[in-house]
Amino acid sequence: MAEAIIEVKDRIILCARCFNITEVSPCAICTDPTRSSAICVVEEPLDLIALERTGAVRGRYHVLHGAVSPIEGIGPEKLRIQELVQRVEKEQPDEVILAMNLDMPGEATASYLHRLLAPLGVNVSRPASGLPAGGDLEYADEITLGRALQNRRTL
Ligand SMILES: [Zn+2]
After folding, report:
1. Could you tell me the sign of the dihedral formed by the alpha carbons of 97, 153, 149, 138, in that order?
2. Of the candidates 150, 153, 128, 121, which has an alpha carbon nearest to the alpha carbon of residue 56?
3. Ligand 1: distance of its center to the CA of 71 in Å?
4. Per CATH, the architecture of 35-154 is what?
5. Measured in angstroms, how far is the CA atom of residue 63 from the centroid of ligand 1?
6. How far is the CA of 8 from the centre of ligand 1 (A)?
7. I need a labelling partner for 5 at 20 to 30 A (CA). Which of 19, 109, 121, 133 fits?
């Protein structure tokens, strides 16, 4: 049993494209040819799982591995933001969806990303209301989450 757990841990890596946790890089979502060019940006791999369950995301993802939080000393350089900018420049997605949590660090991260991405000429959107304020995205129920994503607004 313990050996099996170690084995799984050894195989888990980050996808070189979207930084989701995976066993193969690029991951199955990144190599899925049926997906649109849109990029849905999330804070953590668990958020990706929650959004993927709603089926509302037609594109691919980008996992930041955190949110900007000056109080906790987490600056943009600690997140996968540079990689996101490079991806947007290279992939020219139809849309970038900023699906951060609706709390202070999530909002700070979304507005930072918006300022960074808008000059690149890409459509940037944010899921509409419907998510519990201050709540973690991963805990929102599927229907609420799916609806918030469908009714997203362009920034
Ligand atoms: Zn990937």
Report:
1. positive
2. 150
3. 30
4. 3-Layer(aba) Sandwich (3.40)
5. 9
6. 18
7. 19
